[in-house]
Write a structure and sequence with these properties.
mainly alpha, 359 residues
């Protein structure tokens, strides 16, 4: 009989191989999982349409249109932000040169030798910054390939969604714990994305007002970027802030940049750092640390798509690997938020734990 250590080593080896395979297939797996999450999110819409007596084909068409609309907003919104940044950079060539001179003069007053700095910055221009932003997204061809794959996979998932109730009923009869886990994943994903959409919209409108007040070009494009990056937990705010801060620096100097950073940070702190985590934690039930680590993990596995899918995929992994097995309730408790009153195990134990029973 194998010892516990041998079993753990074999499981760890299998996990590493599985993750390596997922990372190698990220070009296919990422768009597929994004399409699945989107369809799961909008699934209540066709269900209510069928319950209202509307034809099944109309529910499929509406689901398809809504899913495609979400995908196009994600992809085209990101492309529009990058295009706006790349287009704006050449207009600030003179300001960029002046900024370089100011930095060099400031370093000189500190007694820092600027020879190495000058050689490092030699040839650096706004155009090169724009090119770097473009290359960060990848080639246009790869983006279009991922978009076509995403739309195609979503099309077939939507067609299959008509059979979801029957499949779920079969799973519920054969494996009730697994069915409950799938239900938790679906509800948690919808709640998370709904809350992120509402708060992201409010933050985006506030950011647009700030950008209009600071006379930053293309404020609605950057507002859309702020909305989209709102779906990225923890660091999305920083991603949406970087291009705006650069434009503020080049257009109005250090003071404008600091004002934009302070205003963005205030809005983000009030809405997405104070209120949103509380609401998400109560309903989704993932610990804050787990949410942050899931962002790094799924970004490593799936690339940029993993940043958006970090929380939904963590909920899916939790449903399949932990929640479906009552024997692993201890592991579920380790990664769950203590505010997750929807978890039956946590809810049952919470009232029985005395306050002094802490590690």
């Amino acid at each position: 009989m194998l010892g516990r250590l041998a079993v753990l080593l074999m499981a760890a080896g299998g996990l590493v191989l599985a993750l390596a395979g997922m990372r190698a297939a990220s070009g296919i797996l990422g768009p597929t999982l994004l399409g699945l999450v989107i369809v799961v999110t909008v699934y209540p819409l066709p269900r209510r349409m069928r319950a209202a007596g509307l034809p099944a084909w109309s529910a499929v068409v509406v689901t398809m249109l809504v899913s495609y609309g979400i995908i196009l907003v994600l992809v085209l919104g990101t492309l529009a932000a990058i295009a706006a940044f790349v287009t704006a950079m050449p207009d600030y060539a003179d300001e960029f040169s002046a900024l370089q001179d100011d930095v060099m003069a400031w370093l000189g007053t500190l007694g820092i030798t600027t020879g190495d700095v000058e050689s490092a910055l030699d040839g650096l221009s706004p155009g090169q910054i724009g090119s770097a932003a473009t290359s960060a997204l990848g080639s246009v061809g790869s983006v279009l390939t991922a978009l076509v794959l995403m739309l195609t996979v979503t099309f077939f998932i939507v067609l299959d969604s008509a059979g979801f109730p029957l499949r779920y009923a079969v799973i519920e009869r054969a494996r009730p714990e697994l069915a409950r886990a799938f239900g938790e994943f679906a509800r948690g994903t919808r709640t998370y994305l709904f809350v992120a959409t509402v708060f992201g919209g409010v933050v985006a409108l506030a950011d647009v007002a700030i950008l209009y007040a600071m006379d930053i070009p293309d404020p609605w494009v950057w507002g859309l970027l702020a909305f989209l990056t709102g779906f990225i937990p923890n660091v999305g705010f920083v991603i949406g802030l970087i291009p705006v801060a650069v434009l503020a620096l080049l257009g109005g100097g250090w003071s404008d940049m600091l004002i934009v950073i302070a205003a963005y940070s205030l809005v983000n702190f009030l809405l997405q750092s104070l209120f949103q985590p509380k609401i998400v934690g109560d309903s989704v039930g993932l610990a804050t640390t787990v949410t942050f680590l899931s962002l790094a993990f799924w970004t490593f596995i799936l690339g940029p798509i993993g940043t958006i899918l970090a929380v939904p995929l963590t909920l899916l992994a939790k449903a399949l690997l932990l929640s479906a097995d009552p024997a692993l309730a201890w592991a579920t408790a380790l990664i769950s938020s203590t505010a997750n009153h929807q978890d039956p195990v946590l809810a049952a134990v919470e009232s029985e734990v005395p306050e002094h029973a802490q590690p």
